[in-house]
Structures are given as structure tokens and as C-alpha cells.
């Protein structure tokens, strides 16, 4: 029976509608790296808290920039000069040190000559006079919103939070995910793999894809192709927020994920999306008896390794970002040009593996959804809409970046 397939956008919207951000926890800033802010972050202090010098030199009054001056003291970082700088006086000042009262210009040391306590101008005076001064509040002031809710805490955001006076940050607890490899042909031992077997590689791949999103991941399987074994594996994953299966999502006699989910008491939300690779992806939910009102979400990914990767990229990663309360959950597209011709597309939107050098993209010659070597050689997915015409060298094309998951 033929049935209209969901578009990628509709399927993503349906999945994301099933998931609200997880509970808020307060963790120290370094532990928050990789998580997303649960509330806007307000500065608890002003930075800089005082006018500071941005250079090593001498602090003087802007009214007398021609000198000469008499050296009357020093302001070093952490050790301010507590006197007043009068006309004709200079204070030795270092980068990051507080500007003394009365001084409103800094002359860099390369532009003066100091003999004993006598300082004379040998170069150029700063123009404007406060060129080398970092004003109080230049970076942020107490009460400013320095990060919006949903911002991802990376190195710069962690530093900003600490500079703004925070020891702890409100983020969402890590999503718990269980990844299940399934299929009779799979072996967990890549070194002892018989001819009729293949190494179970999807579980490791999906775990690695989820790792930058700070998920607590555990693995099950490979699980054999029987209803009982699959239901038992699902039972073992009963505490997970998200269960990810790979394989058995299609229409063959041994494709048991849908019947197993049904037997386990999960409700199918959708099955099959108009994308290539990845068409047989399914999404289901299950209410946990006696537990929270939050349903478990099951992502049934296709077994072909590239189909698994692509559906994890477009569904699992956005879902994890949604559970984290991320501001941006969908991957970013970049416009570029084709460095080689790309064939016209059929009725399913296709994502071609490609190699992008920052200016142009070359599609990989092998696009079979079982071909891992071409996936490993690619850094983008080229977006080919349904029925897109053939394009030539130099034509515009859009790509999704793989290296940071689009937006991490
Ligand atoms: N008659 C039809 N056949 C197929 C259709 C269809 O519409 N009609 N869809 C095809 C598409 S598209 C895809 S994608 C695959 C998806 O199939 P399954 O999700 O049922 O995956 P399996 O058959 O179990 O496996 C496919 C392939 O991937 C290998 N595999 C599975 N799991 C793993 C793993 N954990 N690690 C590494 N490799 C794995 C498996 O050995 C197979 O080679 O169905 C098409 N068929
Ligand atoms: O869509 Mo399947 O994912 O073509 O190989």
C-alpha cells in the first residue's frame, strides 16, 4: 500500500512537539560546559569595575599631553595608586591596572623617555587621549543580560559567566539515552566476524554523534531478530528519556521494530519520511507506568549505516537539543557552489555526502546508504530537494555542516 510520506520539516516538528526541556539543575560553571542555559544570565558585577589601562605606559592628565611630567608613583594590576594625578605628574601604569584619579590619558612606554623621575614625550601622544583606556562597564554592567536562555555553554560562555560573577549555572539535566543495535547478522566483535556477519557499528556511531550534546548514553545489543529479545531490550531501557534503535525499521519479514514497540506498549507517532537516505525512520512514545508524566521517546532508525547517521543528524540531535532547552535545535545550512556536476533528483529529498573546502563542494561518487567509507570522507550533506534539476560546476547549492553537528 502506498502512503504519502511526511516531509523532513513536518516530521521534525512532530518529533519536537513530543519533547519539552528536562528538569533544571544548578551545576558549577565548568560542569555546565556542553549544556544550555535554562534562564537568561544576568551579570552580578560590572566589568571592568573601574577604568583600566589597556597598555603598559604612563597615566597623565589629558589636558597636558605634551609633557614633560614628573613620575610620582605606580599603579600595577591588583595594586592601584591611591593618590591624585595633578597637571605635570605621571604615574607608571601596567596593562589591566586601575587608572588613578585625575588621570584620563595613557601614553605607551614606547613613546616616552624616562630619566630618573623625569618623563618626556619622544613619540606621539594618544589620539583620542583615552585611546588606551578601557572604560568601566566596557564589557558589561551589573544587571545586564550577558547570555540568553538556551545559549550553549562553551569555552567563551563559561569564561563570561565566571567574569560576570557566577559560580553555578542553571542548565537541564543530561538526557539519558539507550542505543540498541539489532539484527541477527550483527556481531559485537569486529575482529572475529564471520562472512555471514557484519560488525555492529551503528551503536558506536550513534553514541559518538550524541556525545558532544552531553547525553548519558548506554548501549544494548546486538539484539537478535525476535520479538521476545527486542521487547526484553526495550524493558531494559525503561529508564531512558530516549531509546534509539537501528535496523529492522523497514518492511522485510525480519524487520520487527514496529511489532516489538507495539507489543511493548509504545504508540507509533509516525513512520517513514520523504528523505534519502533514511526513509523508514519511525518515532514512537511510551508512558512509563507509575512514573513521570513525561513519555519516553523511541527513535527507530534504519539499519543502513548512512541512513542511521543521517536520521540521527536530522532527528536525534535536534531532539537532544530540545531536551536540553537549546535556543537553536535544527542544524544550520550554508550556501555554497558545486565544484562538480550533480545529477537531477527523484521524488525524495536527498542528502548527498560531500567534501566542502569552505568555498565549494564536491559530491562523493559513492552514495549507497551502506557505504561508510564515503561517509567518513565527507564533511557536509548536500541538500537536494525533491525533483531538483541537474546542476553544473559553479551552480549554487546548500549544505549542512557535519563537523560540529551543524550547531553542535
Ligand atoms: N521492499 C523494500 N525494502 C526496503 C525498503 C522499502 O521501502 N521496501 N526500504 C529500504 C531502505 S530505504 C532502507 S534504509 C532499509 C532499512 O532497513 P532496516 O531499517 O530494516 O535495516 P536492516 O534491514 O535491519 O539493515 C539494513 C542494513 O544495515 C545493516 N545494519 C543494521 N544494523 C546495523 C548496525 N547496528 N551496525 C551496522 N550495520 C547495521 C544490516 O546488516 C543491513 O545491511 O531497508 C530497505 N529495504
Ligand atoms: O532511505 Mo534508505 O535510507 O535509502 O537507504
TrEMBL record:
This protein's pathway: Cofactor biosynthesis; molybdopterin biosynthesis
CDD domains the UniProt entry points to: MoeA (cd00887)
Name of the top EC class for this enzyme: transferase
A Pfam family hit: MoeA_N
Reaction equations catalysed: adenylyl-molybdopterin + molybdate = Mo-molybdopterin + AMP + H(+)
Cofactor(s) needed: Mg(2+)
GO cellular component, one term: cytosol
Any single biological process term in GO: Mo-molybdopterin cofactor biosynthetic process
Role summary: Catalyzes the insertion of molybdate into adenylated molybdopterin with the concomitant release of AMP.
Family: Belongs to the MoeA family.
Name of this protein: Molybdopterin molybdenumtransferase
Natural source organism: Novosphingobium silvae
Taxonomic lineage from the root: Bacteria, Pseudomonadati, Pseudomonadota, Alphaproteobacteria, Sphingomonadales
